[in-house]
Design brief:
Structural class: alpha+beta
Shape: elongated
Distance between the termini: 20 Å
Oligomer: single chain
Largest sheet: 5 strands, antiparallel
Order of helices and strands: HEEEEEEEEEEEEEEEEEEEEH
Number of helices: 2
Strand content: 25-35%
Number of strands: 20
Length: 261
């Protein structure tokens, strides 16, 4: 019965984590470039009371044994990098990646962060930056005299001025990919940083060598499916209730034992 109490307690803790993850997904349903998180669970060790294959007589052996589990634990939380739906904004500085890859952003400490959020702006120097004012890497500057900016599917950035008939080359957007993008560390602000599990970044031009292409005038929305997350929330809540019932049942049995005379 003490095993039942401990196992049910670990189950309640695991479902609490599941609810936390699901609630965060729902909270970010409208966050640009957000990637939903999935919680993975593992059963804990078992107490082996009777080994399978043990002899039951000189000529026979038990086909099964007695193994009592000790509960569950959260094994990991994993980002799922499926592409979200694209929203047409009409803003020529909004860019979405259709396929694999992440934009590179220079962090305040000089390191490189990675994001699927392509809502870019011009700062006071004409440089392309994200909503937090952090510059795109490689840096791209749009001069004041440029009135129209065009971003191609291959990441080529060109501008048009009122004094020149031909467009001028402004830069090349490069994106990064990882062997294991699920291993990236989410640091907030729609940004990720690499880890030993993700592997080093692989840099390339959009549309080449398996990299996704760019869609200017669009933003990638969250890949959270509201209906799916609501079902997950209900399932986790019911599982939490079932585990609490197991705690009550074990407590009732202990109470009955305590009242024996």
């Amino acid at each position: 019965m003490l095993r039942a109490l401990n196992s049910a307690a670990t189950g309640m803790e695991a479902q609490q984590t599941y609810i936390d993850v699901t609630s965060n997904n729902l909270a970010n349903v409208n966050t640009t470039g957000y990637k939903k998180v999935r919680a993975n669970f593992q059963d804990l060790m078992y107490q082996l009371q009777k080994a399978p294959g043990g002899a039951t007589s000189q000529a026979t052996e038990a086909p099964t044994g007695i193994q009592v589990g000790l509960g569950v634990r959260t094994a990991s939380t994993q980002k799922e990098f499926q592409t979200g739906s694209l929203k047409n904004t009409g803003n020529f500085l909004d860019v979405a990646i259709q396929g694999d890859g992440l934009f590179q952003i220079t962090q305040p400490d000089g390191s490189i962060g990675y994001t699927r959020d392509g809502a870019f702006h011009r700062d006071e120097n004409g440089q392309l930056v994200n909503a937090n004012g952090l510059p795109l890497e490689p840096a791209i500057t749009i001069p004041l005299e440029v009135t129209t900016v065009t971003i191609g599917q291959d990441g080529t950035v060109t501008g048009q001025t009122n004094t020149q008939a031909e467009p001028i080359q402004l830069g090349q957007i490069q994106i990064a990919n990882f062997v294991n993008p699920a291993g990236l560390i989410a640091v907030g602000g729609n940004n990720f940083k690499e880890s030993g599990s993700s592997g080093p970044p692989i840099i390339g031009n959009p549309g080449e060598n398996g990299f996704g292409s760019l869609n200017a005038g669009f933003l990638e929305m969250s890949n959270v499916a509201v209906v799916e997350e609501m079902i997950n929330l209900i399932t986790a809540q019911r599982a939490f209730e079932f585990n609490s019932k197991a705690v009550q049942a074990a407590d009732g049995m202990l109470r009955e034992l305590g009242q024996l005379r």
